[in-house]
Amino acid sequence: MKMNNGVGPVKRVDLNLRTLFPELATTIYKIELNKYLIYVTNFSGDFKVLTERFENEIRPLLTPVKLVNTKPEHFQEIIPGLSDLEISKGFQGMLMNKVEWIFLLAAKFPKINFYKISDDDGVVDIHIANYKIKSGKETKYVYADIFSIAELEAFISSHQSPIPFNIIIDEFEEKPELTQGFDERGGTFTYVREKNQKPLFVQRDESLWFDNIDAIFESKYTKEHLYFYDKEEYSCYADFSAFPNIDLRYFLMLYQTMYLSPPLDTKISEWLKGFDVTVRELLTLIERGRVKLILINDTSRYDLGFLNEVYELRPNAIISKRGVSCLQQCDIVEMSNRYIFNEMKLVQELKLISEFLAKELKKDTKMLYNALVWPIKARRKSFEVLHRGGVLSASLYGVDQIIDNPPSSDISEDTSFLLKMFSYATHLSHSLNATYFPVRGEEGYTDESYAEVMGKLLNFYRNATISNLKDFTDCESFLANGNTFVLPIELIKINPYPSILEFEEVLSKEIVFPNSERLIKTLSHLSLDEQKKKIAFYNREVTRYLGKTQKTERLLDLGVQTLFEIIGSPMGVPIGSIFNFSQWATNKCMKKISPAQRIQEKIDLALNQSTDRKNIHFLSKINRVAMLREA
After folding, report:
1. Residue 472 confidence (pLDDT) above 60
2. Cβ pair 519, 618 in contact under 8 A
3. What per-residue confidence (pLDDT) applies to 497?
4. Do 73 and 48 form a contact (C-beta atoms < 8 A)?
5. Residue 336 to residues 106, 158, 370, 450, Cα–Cα distance (Å)
6. What would the mean pLDDT of 106-130 be, rounded to a whole number?
7. If pLDDT is split at 50, 70 and 90, which confidence band does 573 have?
8. DSSP string for residues in 445-485
9. pLDDT at 211 > cutoff 60
10. How far apart are CA 58 and CA 149, in angstroms?
11. With CB atoms 3.0 to 4.6 Å apart as the test, which of 76, 353, 513, 573 could cross-link to 256 if both were Cys?
12. Tens digits of residue pLDDT in 397-407
């Protein structure tokens, strides 16, 4: 029987206290067996009020600890609290039921054959099955080796639970029948599911979480280590899990990579009919690296047959709940580490400053202070939330908690639930460094106003560092270049006739990225009136050029376009030999020679250095499938 010192829950209570009140300095004292005190050294308010909150909101029932503001004279030892680097260590003090325990153990120790867990008479019995498998004339013995058992014992010890654990190895002549199994949506059975019932990509991402969570908090494992994340990608996130969104072609039109959360409880083939897209076409886009699937819910809610096809085709293009949790946890830890006020002395000063500024600005002190310390609180609270509920539970630690409701005057407070309902989407897109596209429900139902406010807040925290803060505060346009939501779909009109693969082929062939990013940034920095004028100018110049180009039966033939003609606009005319060379390089008989095509691209690049020239150049190339919409 494995007995622990039982201090884990006390350390977790202390962490939760410092999460709610980051300015507090605490010390844990062990007075005697199963009796602990948390001594608060620097609280200046009404301690009775603090104690009541501690007892009612923070300390779980039966946890043997009390809050005091006087240092005890007699004690056995001082217990070190959980630092911000140790929040995940051994899952210390986390209260877990049988279902959570067996899932945790099965995922963390995949080589061990867990098959049952029970808690009779106040003792947790963890059952491991050793058994024989017959294959033809051969018999194989399946067992847990001593090294795996040692790792299991070390983990249970690090959990520091007051409850004793038994590790029981049961011997069987054959594999035991598992008469019950877990339901990922909330079952309460005793026996673990067979491992092969979980999709391989789920097993992979569970290992990713359990193997790296400690390293994430220690900043030894970052987003750049994740198999699906590329900080250089120009990407967007679109959530189709619960509500409609825009046509898939818009995302392909504007972004290099589209992260997509597919609909729940719906066959992919049926969903795609609304976009005039086939399953095979979507799989082709995934194979090309243009689309990646982000699963924010349990796999049982999705079209599992399709998900398995994606995994076989391109394993890195499907990210399950645990993988998303890793991404989000990495992002929060990184943000907290870089945050300019992430020092104990500064946090304590922020409390005083908040009280002063609240009076001057006529703001709520608590709201102001919580906004200033949000990255610190999010780091301390997010681990349990992400472990249990995944990113869908982001509102429990998210920036929505520090936003006044409603964020704009034209939204009723009755719709403030959107903050919590869609908080995950803004946090997820921020973690991906991707643009978020708000959902588009019936009767104008959308989360865009909330997403914009949350996006701006997250951008502030990301850039509130020693090196970035001055630039961030000096230039409001910095926000537009971050991860707040954008609505370029208001500017783009998609031609309806190309198939989605034909559409994507044009975009890929014509080097869309980062041209689309530059176009959107150019327009987003203008006033509405300036934007209208700029769009009209771009369309006029593109039309002037394209009017001279022969058309095929259906679409414009981009293969014979002589793009140097665009440069002959009022913005400037290219000179002499370069002009003649451009004519030669784009001659119809030369277009099949790859060196000439590469040379022409170099010429185009050299001759299109102004932003407007580049944007017109880009728009002329994609005119086959899209154009700017004028008001």
Report:
1. no
2. yes
3. 67
4. no
5. 31, 25, 14, 23
6. 83
7. very low
8. ---HHHHHHHHHHHHHHHH-STTTHHHHHH-THHHHTTTS-
9. yes
10. 34
11. 513
12. 998 888 754 44
More confident residue, 28 or 547: 28
The owner of tokens 């990713």 is: 208
| 528: CB partners within 8 A, 6+ apart | none
Count Cα atoms within 13 angstroms, Cβ side, for 540: 9
In this structure, what are the phi and psi dihedrals at residue 316, rounded to the nearest 5 degrees? -75, 0
d(CA 347, CA 341): 6
Q: Which one-letter amino acid corresponds to residue 50?
A: L
CB atoms within 10 A of CB 299: 18
Residue (of 107, 129, 134) closest to 117 by Cα position: 129
Gap between the Cα atoms of 559 and 563, Å rounded: 11
Q: Are 437 and 259 in contact (CB under 8 A)?
A: no
For residue 45, report the phi and psi dihedrals to the nearest 5 degrees: -90, -155
- The radius of gyration of the chain from alpha carbons, rounded to an integer in Å, stands at 29
CB-count exposure of residue 41 (10 Å: 0-12, 13-18, 19+): exposed
- Residue 285 near residue 505 (C-beta atoms within 8 A): no
- Say yes or no to pLDDT of 482 above 80: no
Alpha-carbon distance 488 to 476, whole Å? 19
The kind and range of the H/E element at 239 are strand 235-239
C-alpha 546, offset from chain centre: 42
Grade residue 584 by pLDDT with cuts at 50, 70 and 90.
very low
Residue entry with tokens 């399953």: 279
On whether the CB atoms of residues 439 and 446 are closer than 8 A, the answer is yes
pLDDT at 206 over 50: yes
Q: Are 341 and 22 in contact (CB under 8 A)?
A: no
Could you give the CA distance from residue 589 to residue 603 in angstroms, rounded to a whole number? 18
| Tens-digit pLDDT profile for residues 322-351 | 999 999 999 999 999 988 888 888 888 887
**CB neighbour class for 273 (10 Å; exposed up to 12, middle 13-18, buried from 19):** exposed
Beta bridge partners of 436: 237
Mean pLDDT, residues 227-256: 86
Q: What does the block give as tokens for 52?
A: 């009541």
248-261 tens-digit pLDDT: 888 887 888 999 99
How far is Cα 559 from Cα 586, in angstroms, rounded to an integer?
9
**Quick count: other Cβ atoms within 10 Å of Cβ 14?**
25
User: To 10 degrees, what angle do helices 344-361 and 365-372 make?
Assistant: 140
